[in-house]
Automatic annotation (TrEMBL):
It is a peripheral membrane protein. GO terms for cellular component: AP-1 adaptor complex. GO terms for biological process: intracellular protein transport; vesicle-mediated transport. InterPro entries: Adaptor_Complx_Large_Subunit, AP1_complex_gsu, ARM-like, ARM-type_fold, Clathrin/coatomer_adapt-like_N, Clathrin_a/b/g-adaptin_app_Ig, Clathrin_app_Ig-like_sf, GAE_dom. Residues 679-792 form the GAE domain. Keywords: Cytoplasmic vesicle, Golgi apparatus, Membrane, Protein transport, Transport. The keyword Metal-binding does not apply. This is AP-1 complex subunit gamma. The keyword Protein transport applies. It comes from Gasterosteus aculeatus aculeatus. Pfam families: Adaptin_N, Alpha_adaptinC2. SUPFAM superfamilies: ARM repeat, Clathrin adaptor appendage domain.
Length: 799
């Protein structure tokens, strides 16, 4: 291909290339020819070559080597070259390129050019790629052009000023006077540029916003002129006079009237006029109406005007264009909280949008329908939502189910209706509900004591029909386990009687246990329900025992643990089974001092704590409020326990009030865990002289380790100071003395000093210890030594 081919020929050659490789070859040859011609001093076809390079750039190939040519062509006096040069600068340069700084002076010169089209080229280029430095340098020139007499230049200058304000916010004050004066122009292009500039200035500076609020009457007059003007071929679009300018003015009015009652009052009549006179059969009219609605809803408008705006959005819902329906529902979603009654009038149309084929419209309709649910329409709305849930796409099912649950919890007319609704959702979309749905429904069923029979029958039937919905199966298993006796009676008045035998109930649970669709959590529910049925039926206990024993070797650790515990309950603690598996109490949700139905320490108050004296037994009594039901599962068990070295047996603010046989059996559910009898650590008197006594207690830590606690007291009438204890043991024994609790002993035994000594006897020699007692009494030092040959509670041979 010849290097001098025209642009059309190059385009034709590129398009005729059959492969990408052939296309790259054509472009590489042409780019090489363009480079060679750029290097020539006298090149008459510079604009021709740059135009071809710009086409290459549009195809995505590198064209950066043409940047300097753009700079040279911008400086050319010929308009044809300037035009291509400025176009190339806008495409090949940006504010990050150093070459962009080279055209600043050229742009400044062209802004003062006598030809309006050259000025226009400079304005467009500055507005497109002007950097912050360029904007600061050329802002005075733009302000001068905003006051020019040429409407064509003023329109371009206004849009260029918008770019400058966005780049350098502090330059906004420079354009405020000129922007306000542009509102008196008759040319629609200038007005449009002025409104866009004022919008930018108001959004950037709150003080400027207050100044432009005075222009609201002028804007209202301009808008009225557009609405009431007759046919104008120059500005008419589908029967609407300059809809682009109308939309911009409405957007500016919305900004000026926001949070300002005076400005809002002055534009209320205009907005009502636009809302009633604009044709809504054309897309252009709908654009103006939508902007009017947004303005009405955003300013402090009258209530009647807001209702009119909501009605316009209601008409949008009937439009065949899905985009219009979508933006209508998006707007209604934002105002449903403030104008709930007005939006409720269009409830039927909104619900019909749930049947739309478009997924986005469907989602918006669902969100808006859920927001419209109230106590007065809960039944009718829930019927529509449940119908939608049965046919909605999978990606909306979880959201729909969650919204239905929340609405039912807030506005349920009765407990039975609430339970029926939740069960309907579980049957329809049980696999898409949230994790907290199962405990919430169980809590609801537990509290509705009069509906236990009705609920267990309904869940049993649902379980027979479908075991694929895991949430439904879990709730059904729980209810069958808790209220199996009601299921077997079959005398439920709320539903038609169905005779269910013990084998039928066990068959249903066994089917869940054996189903490949059941999750480990669901099998856990079913196994526990099976175990609970052992106390609610009489003839099939052996079958339950065999079912439970099978899962003692299950691969799932959680299920295996449950089965092992239940087997132990059958074998060793059958006398406790009825008490352990009795019916769950009513679950109180979010009540103080309770978490998931269990009492916390904060709820227990005024529990008497018995103080233990050394060597005296403590009678542990069962509290009346059954705080320690777990420790005294069978109740009524009172045993005397000997206190240990701890002071008051307090754990986390709760007293231990019950133990004994029943509690020990429960702790020994898996076998091998016999409860240790609490007994005081044995103490001996090691030293007693001059009112000073020293007692010794021992605690064996390991086969060779021993902790000795020395406790000193003073029963005399004078205080002791500088009290110290020193100890010595055989060389083969390792000794470590910890810090004492104090160094003074007050008179008459009001306080004690304790010292812990850690001994390690690896050779297990005969243990002996010599203790030196030192103190000062009334200024006189005293020192004495005592030898300890026996240690209480230890086998002498072992130590």
């Amino acid at each position: 291909m010849s290097p001098s081919v025209p642009l059309q020929e190059m385009i034709r050659a590129i398009r005729s290339a059959r492969t990408q490789c052939e296309e790259r070859g054509v472009i590489q040859r042409e780019c090489a020819a363009i480079r060679a011609q750029f290097r020539q001093a006298d090149n008459g076809g510079r604009s021709h070559n740059l135009a071809k390079l710009l086409y290459v750039h549009m195809l995505g190939y590198p064209a950066h080597f043409g940047q300097m040519e753009c700079v040279r062509m911008i400086a050319s006096p010929r308009y044809s070259e300037k035009r291509v040069g400025y176009l190339g600068a806008m495409m090949l340069l940006d504010e990050k390129q150093d070459a962009s700084l080279l055209i600043t002076n050229s742009i400044k010169n062209d802004l003062s050019h006598s030809n309006q089209y050259v000025q226009s080229l400079a304005l467009c280029t500055l507005a497109c790629m002007g950097s912050a430095e360029m904007c600061r340098d050329l802002a005075p020139e733009i302000d001068r052009l905003l006051r020019a007499s040429n409407s064509y230049i003023k329109k371009k200058a206004a849009l260029c000023a918008v770019h400058i304000v966005r780049k350098v916010h502090e330059l906004g004050e420079l354009f405020v006077p000129a922007a306000r004066s542009l509102l008196s122009e008759k040319n629609h292009g200038v007005l449009h540029g002025a409104v866009v500039l004022i919008i930018e200035l108001c959004e950037q500076n709150p003080e400027t916003l207050e100044r432009f609020r005075k222009t609201v009457p002028d804007l209202v007059q301009i808008m009225k002129g557009l609405v009431l003007s007759g046919y104008s071929p120059e500005h008419d679009v589908a029967g609407i006079s300059d809809p682009f300018l109308q939309v911009r003015i409405l957007r500016l009015l919305r900004i000026l009237g926001r949070n300002n009652e005076g400005a809002s009052d002055s534009m209320n009549d205009l907005l009502a006029q636009v809302a009633t006179n604009t044709d809504s059969t054309k897309t252009v009219g709908n654009a103006v109406l939508y902007e009017t609605v947004l303005t009405v809803l955003d300013i402090k408008s009258e209530s009647g005007l807001r209702v009119l705006a909501v009605n316009i959005l209601g008409r949008f819902l009937l439009n065949n264009d899905r985009n219009i329906r979508y933006i209508a529902m998006t707007s209604l979603q934002k105002i449903v909280g403030t104008d709930h009654n007005a939006v409720q009038r269009h409830r039927g149309t909104i619900v019909d949008c749930l049947k739309d084929q478009d997924a986005s419209v469907k989602r918006r309709a669902l969100e808006l329908s859920l927001a419209l649910v109230s106590a007065s329409n809960i039944r009718s709305m829930m019927k529509e939502l449940l119908l939608f849930l049965s046919s909605c796409p999978p990606e909306l099912r979880a959201h729909a189910a969650s919204g239905i649950f929340n609405a039912a919890e807030r506005y349920a007319p009765s407990q039975r209706w609430h339970i029926d609704t939740m069960l309907h959702v579980l049957i329809t979309a049980g696999g898409d509900v949230r994790d907290e749905t199962v405990p919430n429904l169980i809590q609801l069923i537990t509290n509705a004591s009069e509906l236990h029979c009705y609920t267990v029958h309904k869940l049993y039937r649902a379980l027979l029909l479908d075991i694929s919905q895991q949430s439904l199966v879990q709730v059904a298993c729980w209810c069958i386990g808790e209220y199996g006796d009601l299921l077997l009676k079959g005398d439920c008045q709320e539903t038609e009687p169905v005779q269910v035998t013990e084998d039928d109930a066990l068959d249903a649970l066994e089917t869940v246990l054996q189903s490949h669709m059941s999750s480990p959590a669901t099998r856990g529910f079913a196994l526990t329900a099976t175990m609970k049925l052992s106390t609610r039926i009489t003839d099939n206990v052996d079958r339950i025992r065999s079912i439970v024993s099978i899962y003692g070797s299950c691969i799932d650790v959680e299920l295996q643990q449950r089965a092992v515990e239940y087997n132990a309950l059958f074998r060793k603690y059958d006398h406790m089974r009825a008490a352990v598996l009795e019916r769950m109490p009513v679950i109180e949700k979010n009540s103080p001092g309770h978490t998931n139905g269990e009492s916390t320490g904060e709820a227990v108050k005024d529990v008497p704590t018995a103080k233990m004296k050394q060597g005296e037994p403590l009678l542990l009594q069962q509290p009346a409020n059954q705080v320690c039901d777990l420790l005294d599962l069978l109740g009524g068990s009172e045993e005397t326990l000997q206190p240990g070295p701890a002071v008051d047996c307090l754990v986390s603010g709760l007293s231990v009030h019950a133990a004994g046989t029943a509690g020990g059996d429960l702790l020994d559910l898996l076998g091998g865990f016999e409860p240790a009898e609490l007994s005081p650590a044995p103490q001996v008197l090691a030293y007693d002289k001059g009112g000073v006594t020293l007692t010794l207690s021992c605690e064996k830590q390991s086969d060779t380790g021993l902790t000795v606690t020395l406790t000193a007291s003073n029963s005399s009438d004078s205080d002791l100071s500088s009290f110290t204890l020193q100890a010595a043991v055989p060389k083969s024994v390792q000794l470590h003395m910890k810090a004492p609790s104090g160094d003074s002993l007050p008179a008459r035994g009001t306080a004690k000093v304790t010292q812990m000594v850690v001994l390690n006897n690896p050779n297990k020699v005969n243990l002996k210890m010599r203790v030196r007692v030192s103190y000062t009494r009334q200024g006189s030092p005293f020192q004495d030594t005592v030898q300890i040959d026996s240690f209480p509670g230890l086998d002498a041979a072992g130590q």
